[in-house]
């Protein structure tokens, strides 16, 4: 009887310890699962943010290319205007090349080198 009481007391002492260990093991398993889920979520978030960043970079590149093209066109127009500027200073009807004139029969320009007018 005394031995049975001792055994029951020992079991009574051991049972809470065993329960604690079992609970700790379950907690560890749950924590591991949670960590795996968190890692998966982090990977997904990283992938999505990378995709978003790539899309934004492409948009920015397109915009900058368009801006550069527009600037190039403006520069080309300026260069063309500068190259045609001497032509614009010549009176209407005469070309800057000596001897060439407009289709009019009479040229009123004193710059015209043709003597036939």
Mind explaining what this structure looks like?
With 117 residues, the protein is mainly alpha-helical. It has one helix and no strands. It has one helix at residues 2-89. The radius of gyration is 46 Å and the shape is rod-shaped. 3% of the residues are buried.
Which helices and strands appear, and what pairs or packs with what?
Layout: H1 2-89
- Total strand segments: 0
What would the average pLDDT be, to the nearest integer? 78
Low-confidence stretches: none
Q: Any idea what the radius of gyration is?
A: 46 Å
Rough shape? rod-shaped
Please provide the ordered H/E string of secondary-structure elements: H
- The share of residues in extended strands comes to under 5%
Largest sheet at a glance?
A: none
Structure class: mainly alpha
Calculate the terminal CA-CA distance, rounded to whole Å. 148 Å
Which bin fits the share of residues in helices? Answer: over 70%
H/I helix tally: 1
TL;DR?
75% of the residues lie in helices and 0% in strands.
List keywords for this structure.
117 residues, 75% helix
């Amino acid at each position: 009887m005394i031995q049975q009481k001792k055994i029951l007391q020992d079991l009574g002492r051991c049972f809470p310890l065993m329960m604690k260990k079992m609970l700790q093991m379950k907690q560890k398993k749950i924590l591991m699962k949670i960590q795996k889920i968190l890692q998966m979520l982090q990977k997904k978030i990283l992938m999505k943010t990378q995709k978003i960043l790539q899309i934004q970079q492409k948009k920015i590149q397109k915009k900058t290319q368009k801006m550069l093209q527009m600037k190039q066109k403006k520069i080309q127009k300026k260069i063309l205007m500068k190259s045609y500027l001497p032509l614009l200073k010549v009176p209407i009807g005469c070309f800057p090349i000596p001897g060439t004139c407009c289709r009019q029969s009479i040229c009123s320009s004193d710059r015209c080198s043709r003597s036939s007018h």
